Amino acid sequence: MYLGKNIRLRAIERTDIPLFASWINDPDVIRGLTIIYPMGLEDETRWFDQTMQLPLEEHPLMIEYKEGKGWKPIGNCGFIGIDWRNANAEVGIVIGEKEYWDKSVGSETMMLLLKVAFEILNLHRVWLRVYEDNQRAIRCYQKIGFLQEGRLREAEFRYGKYLDVLIMSVLRPEWKDEYHPGV
């Protein structure tokens, strides 16, 4: 388990599947994701089972927010396709509970993920993809040190139009103490 100021990241459990299914069937939540079709519990269970076959470092982590003396699951995140030879990985995040949007939860989560990437997994580069119209996410990523390094022009068809996909990354030497919560 990884602890931040207001969040913690824990291993996902089979009992989390209904919560994941509710998030990925919310049109607002999936707007920034590559998911385009509704998914039922069986689909989500299949995804969970396949994900558990990946290396442990690529298992998604549950994002939980501290509420009183307990923790509330609000999203998930993790590393995708870790390339150990080149020491880099893609990172992904979804905040499924919309009442936590615009409350710096995404920023704190990404800062904690960078800490895990650079200090625990010994990665050199962490990168992500983001749709050009997801300004909230782009601001979040820029705030914690991600730089835009590329643009895939009109690469995704979403909501009746083609969108550019931005490629952003941060390198370990660029990662500074102010980018993480000091956990």
Number of domains: 1
Element-by-element helix/strand order: EEHHHEEEHEHEE
State the CATH class: Alpha Beta
Main pleated-sheet profile: 8 strands, mixed
Q: What's the CATH superfamily, by name?
A: Gcn5-related N-acetyltransferase (GNAT)
Question: Strand portion, in percent?
Answer: 35-45%
Q: Name the average pLDDT.
A: 93
**What's the alpha carbon Rg, rounded to whole Å?**
16 Å
Would you give the CATH topology? Answer: Aminopeptidase
- Overall structural class, as computed from helix and strand content, comes to alpha+beta
Overall geometry comes to globular
Q: How is the quaternary structure best described? A: single chain
Distance between the termini: 12 Å
Helical percentage:
25-40%
Number of helices: 5
Placed side by side, the strands forming the largest sheet appear as 1-2-3-4-5-6-8-7
CATH architecture: 3-Layer(aba) Sandwich
Low-confidence stretches: 179-183
Q: How many individual β-strands?
A: 8
